[in-house]
Amino acid sequence: MCHPVEAPRVLIVEDEPLIAMLVQEWIEELSCTVIGPAASVSGALELIAGAALDGAVLDVSLGNEESFPIADELGKRGVPFVFATGYGGDDLEVRFAGAQVLAKPFEHKLFCEVVKKMLAAKLGI
Fold it and tell me: Per-residue pLDDT tens for 90-113?
């Protein structure tokens, strides 16, 4: 990964602690700064209020809620994101039909490639 003056800032939204730790480790391997992880919609929205972000990895299902309000806010701000789900994308709302989806369980190489591509599009690297 390129090393810009400031490391890319990536939000992690994941309600399963072990998965959140794994995602955090992999994001940090890419020389990025992790924001979060947040385990709920309200927690994520609090974290990103006024924060500069370069990308996000959003678990679709967060217990009894879904991460779509976070995706909506990121979209308004022009922040790219990928959805993470164990349901193959079948759980996405229609308006997110074209969104990038990472299937759980994650494969390290593919995860890193998808995140790099997401950041490259945002940062022009």
Answer: 667 777 777 888 988 989 999 999
What gap in Å lies between CA 42 and CA 63, rounded to an integer?
13
CATH class label, 9-120 = alpha beta
pTM score, whole prediction: 0.90
Q: Where are the domains of the chain?
A: 9-120
Tell me the C-alpha distance between 88 and 6, whole Å.
34
3-state secondary structure of 83: strand
What DSSP string describes 5-48?
SS--EEEEE-SSHHHHHHHHHHHHHTT-EEEEEE-SHHHHHHHH
Grouping H, G, I as helix, E, B as strand and the rest as coil, residue 80 is coil
